[in-house]
Each structure stands twice: as structure tokens, then as C-alpha cells.
Amino acid sequence: MLALNRLRQAMNATLGAHATLTKRIPIAAGLGGASTDAAAALVAGRDLWQAAISDQEIHEISRDLGSDDPFFLTAGTALGTGRGDQLTRLAPLTDIWFVVVTPAIVIPRKTPTLYGLLRPGDFSTGEAVRRWAGMLPAASGANPIPLPPNAFSRPLYALRPELAALPGRMAAAGAATIGLSGAGPSHFALFSDPEQAERVASRLRTDLGTAVAVVVATPVVKPPPPVSTYLGQG
């Protein structure tokens, strides 16, 4: 795995490890699955090899692997600036449930393809996202706030027009606050009531069929246990 090799290079070591990756997050779905894998590998490798490498050094390695990799080193809510790798921690989301809809669509070389389709009009100063981040402390499931824009919406729907109908079908199933996750193709909807989220998810599974994965999730507020817990390192 590339992340472990980069960690070994930073350690100037020749240590080895046997790593098995079990994928549960859909690949290239706009859900950060690969970045999560890389972040977990870096933390696990440091624990396993007892490396004298600081959190800041781990952060630097992760940002070289991918712009969003540093976000997955810790749990919670954050605002990403720069390339997305400069993180400012924000107030955690509370009493909010997500219905995540992931179509079984494969876009070859998705990330470079969609970045290549972006046009100047797709970009902004970032002010809308900063305003949104400022509203987060008052946000909850009972007090939702509008979602910030996603620059990938236009090129994604132009590349795969069938995805443009998905927000409408989610709305027809009862979703109100709907957004595109990352560069897609996954979309999500926000709910204040977990039972309502489950009802909408059930309708979507019936409407969209087996070609689409629909799951209900809640934000991770507390950081997970240390990776050493799972490795038995004490």
C-alpha cells in the first residue's frame, strides 16, 4: 500500500507488514473511501512500527497522498481550505442523519476527468462555504441550514446525464435537503428524525432498485479509539 511505503520512507526504515484491506465504502463514489484507507494505514503503521513520527509529520505525508486525506486522520466536522488539506475544526453536527444514495456507476479516472471538465464559472471565492461554516454552530436536524454549492455538480451531470434526475427522485421519496457528495456519484439527504430517514431510505430502495446502494448514517462526533486498540498493541 502506497501510504505504508511513504511512511517507511519517512522513517528511513525497511520494516515490513502484512496488510489486508476490506473495502466497505464504495470505490470512487465521492465518499472518501480511498482517503480513509490511506489515513488508517498511516496511523496503523505508526502504531505497529512504533515510529517516532509526530501527528504533524503524519499530516504532511497524508497531504502528499491526497488533498482530502488529512481530513480522515481525525473524526468530526472541518472546513478545508487551500487544496482542502488545511483544516479548521468546526462545531460537530448534532441530531442529524444522512441518507446516502450511491448509484452503481463507474466513471473511469473519475477525479482527473471531472477536474478536467471544470470551467472558470464553476469556481468561487469560497465565501459561500465560509458563511455556511459560520452557521454550523446553530445547525441541527431541527434547524437545518442550506447546503453550500458543489462545483462538481455541473460537470458530473454533463458527463452522466442520468444522475441529474437523482435529486428529484430523492425529493419525491421525501428528502428535502439534498446534496452531491464529493465528486459523486453519491448523493445525500439530511434528516432530523432517524425514523423519517429510514422511511425515505426504504422508499428509495424500492424506487431505485438494486443498482443503487442506500444507507442511513449519522456523523461521527467523537474520535474513534486508537488504532492500537485494534492491533492489540496496548
Describe the structure concisely.
By secondary structure, this protein is α+β, with helices and mostly antiparallel strands.
CATH superfamily (homologous) name of the largest domain: GHMP kinase, C-terminal domain
- Residue share in helix: 25-40%
Architecture per CATH nomenclature, i.e. the level-2 architecture of the largest domain: 2-Layer Sandwich
CATH class of the largest domain: Alpha Beta
Instruction: Give the N-to-C terminal Cα separation.
Output: 24 Å
Biggest sheet architecture:
4 strands, antiparallel
Q: Which strand-content bin applies to the residues?
A: 5-15%
What structural category arises from helix and sheet content? alpha+beta
The side-by-side strand order for the widest beta sheet comes to 4-5-3-6
Question: How would you describe this structure to a colleague?
Answer:
By secondary structure, this protein is of the alpha+beta class. The chain has two domains: 2-89, Ribosomal Protein S5, domain 2 (2-Layer Sandwich), CATH 3.30.230.10; 91-217, 2-Layer Sandwich (Alpha-Beta Plaits), CATH 3.30.70.890. The protein contains nine helices and six strands; from the N terminus they run H-H-H-E-E-E-H-H-H-H-E-E-H-E-H. The chain has helices at 2-11, 33-49, 55-65, 110-117, 127-135, 153-159, 166-172, 194-208, 227-231, and strands at 77-81, 86-90, 97-103, 177-180, 187-191, 212-217. The strands form two sheets. The protein has a four-stranded antiparallel sheet with strand order 4-5-3-6, with helices on one face. A two-stranded antiparallel ribbon has the order 1-2. It starts with a helix and ends with a helix.
